[in-house]
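# nightly structure sweep
# worker-07 picked up a monomer target from the shared queue
# config: single-sequence mode, recycle default, output format = structure tokens
# input follows
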Amino acid sequence: MDGALELHVGTHVDIPVSIELLPGLSVLSALADALGIPQGVPVSRRRVVRKDCPEQLMETMGPLTASGSLHVPAVLSMGGATGSDGIRDEIRRVADIPSDSLLADLERTFGGEVPPAWRKVADNPADFLAAYRRAAETVWDSVAPVWRSGKPLLEREIERVGVASVTGTMSALLANLSPRIRFVDGNVLLPGDAPRTNGVAVRKMTLMPLVSGTRACVHRVDRDGHAYIGYPVAGLAPLLQGETSRTGRGADALAMTLGELRAVILRKGNQPVSMGTLADLLHCTAGTVTYHCRQLEQAGLLSRERQGREVRILRTLRGDALVDALS
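# output follows
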């Protein structure tokens, strides 16, 4: 499912963007982490999964990450209803697919020639599917408590995406999904170890918040140009450490859309202010301020101008409108 991608969505994201809650994708992300593709899963949780998945079982799952990133053929992908029974039904459904269906999907996925990493699967698909089910159920046992306790965060994320859609600030939201996901010049840049694919045009996008790890990222683009992006739900880190999620009623709508630091920067930009002054006000480094200002500039919310030895920022008309709308 993963791979280096550059998705062209337009400077102001002029494509439909929706959001789906699919716990099965958090299962796949956590499984990738256990297989050696870092997803920001806490060490204690990773140890539990590896302990409950014998080495032989993990070796069977190896083809999923043999390319250096998570690669799940379509027939093995999981979404699942939000309830615990729903995802277990989804795991059983995937594991019970006929062997012929798996083989046919592998041939479609790899253009007719199954790569070496998948040949053992092709030779004995029934054993692989049984192992896949066992591993997925073990991972879900770890993910399920976080998914349930993260319900307030997931509900807030639905609201955050809705606000961005209504206010025309989806570009700012995409720039604030994850440190591993960037928004530059109208393109969403996604991580991966494969050679970068430049400027893939997409016609619509579905965002899928994950609870597996703070650096989680799964993505794919269907042949019809529908892009799917899985990313860590905002506020996940404390939840993974066992703390109760804190979202609060009446949350700052601007901070919810942009993130707290960028919301403060945008509010300070109602008049020219230097980057150095911002760094002092925010108690962070100049590099951190520069990074966040650059993302706001890419979203069309800020302008930067050099005056002598200083770089000053100022809100654009688009930035003014966003602050007014969300205040």
